[in-house]
Amino acid sequence: MALFPFLKSSAAAPQAATAEVEAFLKGYSIEVMPRTAEKVEDFRALLPTGTRVYIAHIEGTPIEDMVATAKRIGDEGFSVMPHFPARIIKDKATLVDWVGRYKDVGVNQGLLLAGGVAQPHGDFHSSMQLLETGAFDGFERLHVGGHPEGNKDIDPDGSDKMVMEAARWKSAFSERTDAKMAMATQFCFEAGPVIEWVNRLQAEGIKLPVHIGVAGPAKLQTLIKFAIACGVGASLKVLQKRALDVTKLLLPYEPTEFITELAAHKAANPDFGIEQVHFFPLGGIKTNAEWVTANGGTSGKPAKAA
């Protein structure tokens, strides 16, 4: 029995994608930053036409860089969704300015987050406050964050009481707005806890569809680094435990098992709340896109596929 079933040797032959996996990957999204986007000569050579590309707004990134990246990716034929981290936005005037700049380059959707900054830079500390401003009137789609493993910034006691209350509030907001809404989650590694969490959301009447976060192919060391930075608690413990075997450290991680299990559950339970997959390309955008193409059949073919 393999000690590390989630690790796939780079020498292993790729498995043929199943119909379940192809269906599950259809319409997937992916995340970039301005500095990582600069390294991609042409997104059309990597991604299916119309793919939603999130643009992460890291503290210190000038809004001009964010907007320029959004325009470039949008001009290449993709659906652009920039982040709006509440805690780095000074005030409503700044928020309105940012939204206006994005609208000027054709952006009409956004991911609203609290952000990973400990101390707010101004008036906002939560995505709910951003939603309440009315600044996003005219946006067609508004996504919010989801936390399958909880969030210690929101619930320091280790529970998920406040996280779930926020999810209920966001779900209620979605029912009284024209914008299409969904919950985009942090990346996860184990299907069982994710399935339980999504089922719990549905049982508690939270109607936001889930776009489940998935870490793209990467070295195990890279995954651990990002898991620590992003506060992925339970998954971090799993990675650290599996990293104890130093002979496995150089083997690349691939999300094959995680995706396959979720895809099978979705196929068996069509009303299951996961709507789409959202990739964090921790090992590189090109590597992630190639993995999806290899595992997603026609749904993963890039716009400029040979």
State the major sheet.
Answer: 8 strands, parallel, barrel
CATH topology label? TIM Barrel
Radius of gyration (CA) equals: 19 Å
Number of helices: 11
Distance from first to last alpha carbon: 39 Å
Question: Percent range for helical residues?
Answer: 25-40%
Report the principal-axis shape: globular
Global mean pLDDT: 85
Residues in β-strands, percent: 15-25%
Which residues form runs of ≥5 with pLDDT under 50?
A: 1-14
| Element pattern in H and E | HEHEHEHEHEHEHEEHHEHEH
Q: What is the CATH architecture annotation?
A: Alpha-Beta Barrel
Query: What multimeric state do the chains show?
Result: single chain
Strand order of the largest sheet: 1-2-3-4-5-6-7-10
According to CATH, what is the class?
Alpha Beta
Structural class: alpha/beta
Number of domains in the coordinates? 1
The total beta strand count reads 10
Organism: Pseudogemmobacter lacusdianii
Protein name: Methylenetetrahydrofolate reductase
Keywords: Oxidoreductase
InterPro entries: FAD-linked_oxidoreductase-like
